[in-house]
Amino acid sequence: MPAIDTTLVRRLVRAQFPRWASLPVVPLPSGGTVNAVFRLGDDLTVRLPLTASGAGDVAKEAQVLASLGCLPVAVPAVAGLGEPAQGYPWPWSVHRWLDGEPAVEGRPFAPEALAEFVLAVRSAKADAPPAYRGGPLTLLDRATRDAVEELRRTDEPFDASAALDVWTEALDAPTGPEGWVHGDLMPSNLLVHNGRLTAVLDWATAGIGDPACDLIPAWNLLTAATRPAFRDAVGADDAAWARSRGRALSMAVIQLPYYRGTNPVISANARYVLTQLGCRSARRASTGPRGSSGRAPNTSR
After folding, report:
1. What are the pLDDT digits (tens) for 147-205?
2. Domain Aminoglycoside phosphotransferase, which positions (predicted)?
C-alpha cells in the first residue's frame, strides 16, 4: 500500500472527484488510530482508513447517521464516497467540513450541551446493530485485569488497588435497558466553540448498548466541578454512574501501556482519566518489565 499522504489524496481526488482537483490538501493532526484525515479546500475533509478493519466504517457511518435523523449538534455529512485506486486498497470518503476545535480534557466545557446530545442519541427509535463497545462489562474483565497488571509493572504513577476497586464496583452494578449510544465520545471526536459542543465525529461505533458508554466523557473530559451538572442533566443513577467509571477505567488502562510511547494524545487522555478516577498514585509503582503484547488494543479509533 502506498504512503497515505497528500500526494496520494491529490491523486485519488483528481481521478474520482475532478471538480475538487484544484483544491489544496492539508493533513490534519489527529490522535485517532483508524483514519488519516486531510482538509480539502475550505469546506471538505478526506478520510482514509488506515486498516482493513476500519474500511467497513465508511458505509456503516453513513447508515447510522441516516437512521438517527436530527440531532442537537452537527454531525458528518458525506459529500462523496471514494473507491480503491492508485494502490490504495479500501473505500474512503469525503465529508463536509465542520467548524470547531477538538475538545481537550480539563478545559472549560459546558456539560449541559453534551447531556442534551447524549439524551437525543439515546432516544432514537431506529433499529441498529450492537454498539462497538456496548456489551456487558464482563466481556472486558480479563483484558482489563491484565492491563491493570501490565500498567502496574511500568514506571507510571499508578494505584492498581484503587483501579481494581473501581472495576469491581462497576462489575457489581446492576445493568439497565440498552439503548442507542455513540460509543466513542473521546475528546478528539467532540468539536467545541467557546467551550460548547458544536459537532460530534466518528459514528462507526454507534449502535445499541449500555447507556453508560456515553457517560465516559464525565471522566475523560469533564472536571470535578462540571461532572455533577452533567450527571444531573442525563439523569444517571448510581448503577449507570458506576458502570461509566468502569468503562472509562478499562479504556484507560488498556490504552496507556500500549500508546504511551507512540500516541501522546491518547496517552495524555488515559492519564487524565486515571487521575479523575483516583487511580494515579503520588509515588511511582514498582518498576518492572514493561512488555507489550504487540497487538493494538480494541479501544481507540
Report:
1. 999 999 999 999 999 999 999 999 999 998 999 999 999 999 999 999 999 999 999 88
2. 29-245
Asked if residue 136 belongs to a domain, the reply is: yes
Q: Nearest 5°: CA angle at 168, between 131 and 135?
A: 10
User: Domain span at residue 250?
Assistant: 111-276
pTM: 0.87
Place of cell 433499529: 127
Examine residue 285 and state whether it is found in any structural domain, yes or no: no
* Residue 267 φ/ψ, nearest 5 degrees: -60, -45
Residues in the chain: 301
User: 138 near 210, Cβ under 8 Å?
Assistant: no
CB 187 within 8 Å of CB 251:
no
Looking at the structure of the chain, the number of domains it has is: 2
Calpha distance 129→226 (Å, rounded): 32
Q: Are the CB atoms for 85 and 96 separated by under 8 Å? A: no
